[in-house]
TrEMBL record:
Name of this protein: Olfactory receptor
InterPro entries linked to this entry: GPCR_Rhodpsn, GPCR_Rhodpsn_7TM, Olfact_rcpt, Olfactory_Receptors
Gene name of the record: LOC103212065
Domain G-protein coupled receptors family 1 profile: 41-287
TM regions (residue ranges): 25-47, 59-78, 98-120, 141-164, 205-225, 237-260, 272-289
Keywords linked to the UniProt accession: Cell membrane, Disulfide bond, G-protein coupled receptor, Membrane, Olfaction, Receptor, Sensory transduction, Transducer, Transmembrane, Transmembrane helix
Organism: Orycteropus afer afer
Principal place of residence: membrane
Amino acid sequence: MEQGNNSRVTEFVLHSLSGPRELQLFYFAFFTLFYLSTLLGNFLIVFTVLSEPALHTPMYFLLSNLSFIDACVCTFATPKMIVDFLMERNTISFEGCIAQILFLHLFVGGEMLLLVSMAYDRYVAICRPLHYTAIMSIRKCTGFVVGSWFIGFLHSVSQLVFIVNLPFCGPNKVDSFFCDLPLVIKLACTDTYILEILIRLNNDILGLSCFVLLFMSYTVILVTMRRRSSAGMAKARATLTAHVTVVILFFGPSVFIYAWPSNNFLVDKILSIFYTVFTPLLNPLIYTLRNKEVMSAMQKLRRRKVNS
């Protein structure tokens, strides 16, 4: 902390999972394995979709972009958390903290909108199958992806507006393994009650809007599937199950942390680790294990590598 007429915080102290030295080393190995597995799984999907012409469809184009965002979500804070397990004191600069907040809301906001785009794709495929090729295209999906990143960027910038000019003169301890806006803003040396309400509204508007659109889309899809033959809907049902599972895994922890905050910091910390570390790994597992086309494409790629 700089001293002077107006002392200000130059770094924050992060509180990750605590424990004795042996447990910290276990955390280091465990989360390193998870992080590398997450990168491998998600980039394998991206590479498979790019390499296999049969997967050059709107659905798999959106899936590959979801995998890329998942890799970004697990990267904005996880590598620092892993390194911090080997450190005696876990600190992050003020600028680094602001950067984490920016990237968190950029990636999470973008992923929310991408999930809505994927729901729309499934709605058209199941509810209007004869018009699918006319409605959906790679070009339109590219617009969805660009729009998701753009709105995610606007959302992240709007979050920074609330905090970047606040006075921070101590304390500087954040009870999380990364800088999360609701926790950091409480450390400001001024009354932040109104700002906390505005931040909650900002998050709720984006999150609730995406959730309502997803709920409406999947409700219509489920009603449509019930009216049609189970044999003809078998593949669609498997794909839809994967989509809904990913949505639940993504929105579940976020609801508890942001929309329904708890005073139990340990619970919030565990949920934060879940949706920033574990969920990005579960997504590729869910999509690949339940998708015969992706599994078949991966097997083709493996045979090509072996034969080359």
